[in-house]
Amino acid sequence: MTKQQFDHIPIVNVAAAYDGSHGAVDALAQELAGTLEAIGFAYISGHAVSSGLVNGLRNEARSFFALPMADKQAIAINQWHRGYMAPNSSLIVTSSVAEVAKPNQSESVLIMHELASDDPDFATGKPLQGPNQWPASQPALREAALAYMGALEDLGRRIVHLIARGLGLPDTYFDPHFERPTTFLRLLHYPPQPREEGLFGSAPHTDYGFITLLAQDDRGGLEVRGNNGNWIAAPPIEDTFVLNVGDILSRWTNGRFASTPHRVINLSGKDRYSQPFFFDPSMDCVVAPLKHCVRSDGEPELPPVRYGDYLMERIDKNYDYRKDKTPENRTS
Questions:
Q1: HSE of 236 in the Cβ direction (CA atoms, 13 Å)?
Q2: 239-280 pLDDT, tens per residue?
Q3: CATH assignment of 57-153+172-327, given 2.60.40.60, 3.20.20.70, 3.40.30.10, 2.60.120.330?
């Protein structure tokens, strides 16, 4: 399927990924692959993630963002990219979509995969392999976040299998690259913003990794750029996640799957909360375009890249807390 004009984001029901027949799973994999090839975005319904997990985490996020600034700054983002980021502390300078001059109008908490203190990656100081940070006054946030991440990782693995099958590969083709996945949960708070040129809750961008699974509240504000350059609303739909392709999956498929630009503008007049979960391969994974996604008479669009290198380049450039480190002193 070639990329096509679209005016809405389709819904893909993934129930067959849990208990469907071989034929039903094949049909689902083809439907999902076609949607990601044409649009790069889909609403995911029929999943097994309970609304209680989604809403429970959102309530914990609201409580956290209502804390005094001193309490939030007590877990300010650390060198392992975990913790609280205040408003106006990220500027998407690596955007391939727009010249971004104003910082994002949002605050967030970043939580990544948990590591034991004796984990070898932690012990050797590898990038992003360190401790999460949790607010001392809100112990329930940790429980809610880790339960949510476990459920989203299960859904993510099922979608990875569908993507492989939709590409004509064995379901487990990508599994070796996800034995130690790089996972991010970002809890976001977007205050109401004025209508101002160049001001965004999240400036136009593409995601860095493999796939993103986003739970929205009921405020709206997410927009996806169509192939004609128009911005198309992706409003909340109850009991769905918004799935989108990241740069690394697009690269793996030699551009066959679209890493589609998107943005957030919160003009609702109310606070907006969202919780994207990023399910990405291991930092050491080397991504090269799949051979059958490259024309027999052509060359890959992009050279191979190590995912960890690609990711760290973007984190280093886009976040204020990284910019006061000289390259020779950057160890994580």
A1: 13
A2: 999 999 999 999 999 999 989 999 999 999 999 999 999 999
A3: 2.60.120.330
